[in-house]
């Protein structure tokens, strides 16, 4: 469980199994993801996983906008409490990068959430010391 929680490798291997894919298709599940920080079809905003992950000292969070938008990018702890605002204000279309300093964050799991153009996206961030 820990390996899957940290990097998703167990889940990724599981999802490569043809029988699993067939079963999910039979159950009516569809793939709906964006690739490489490019918004998925129909989406105007996209949020990428932090790099490096897990965070030890500093990480970079990237988000993409198809059009200029008022952006709110906020870091939350697992209890849903706001830890800090990473970005706030109007940003032009394109890819944007925000540094996340982890020196003052306790080890644990956090979530960062992007809201822009009436859409939202969230990603998990693990901090290790």
Q: Give the count of structural domains.
A: 2
Listing every helix as H and every strand as E from the N terminus to the C terminus, the arrangement reads HHHEEEEEEE
Strand residue content: 35-45%
What order do the strands of the largest sheet run in, or round the barrel if closed? 4-3-6-7
**CATH class of the largest domain, please?**
Mainly Beta
Question: How far is the first residue's CA from the last residue's CA?
Answer: 20 Å
Stated plainly, the CATH topology of the largest domain is called Immunoglobulin-like
The computed structural class is alpha+beta
Principal-axis shape equals: globular
CATH architectural name of the largest domain = Sandwich
Strand count: 7
The rounded Rg comes to 16 Å
Low-confidence stretches: 33-37
**Average pLDDT figure:** 85
Word description of this protein:
The strands form two sheets. The protein has a four-stranded antiparallel beta sheet, with no helix packed on it. A three-stranded antiparallel beta sheet has the order 1-2-5, with no helix packed on it. By secondary structure, the protein is an alpha+beta fold. The chain has two domains: 31 residues, no CATH class; 92 residues, Immunoglobulin-like. The protein has three helices and seven strands; from the N terminus they run αααβββββββ. About 4% of the residues have low confidence. The chain starts with a helix and ends with a strand. The radius of gyration is 16 Å and the shape is globular.
């Amino acid at each position: 469980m820990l390996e899957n929680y940290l990097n998703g490798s167990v889940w990724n291997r599981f999802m490569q199994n043809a029988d699993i894919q067939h079963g999910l298709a039979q159950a009516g599940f569809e793939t709906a993801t964006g690739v490489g920080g490019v918004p998925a079809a129909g989406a105007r905003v996209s949020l990428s996983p932090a790099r490096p992950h897990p965070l030890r000292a500093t990480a970079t969070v990237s988000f993409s906008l198809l059009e200029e938008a008022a952006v709110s990018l906020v870091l939350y702890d697992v209890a849903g409490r706001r830890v800090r605002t990473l970005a706030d204000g109007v940003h032009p279309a394109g890819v944007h990068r925000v540094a996340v300093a982890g020196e003052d964050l306790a080890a644990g799991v956090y979530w960062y959430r992007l809201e822009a153009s009436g859409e939202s996206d969230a990603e998990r961030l693990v901090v290790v010391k």
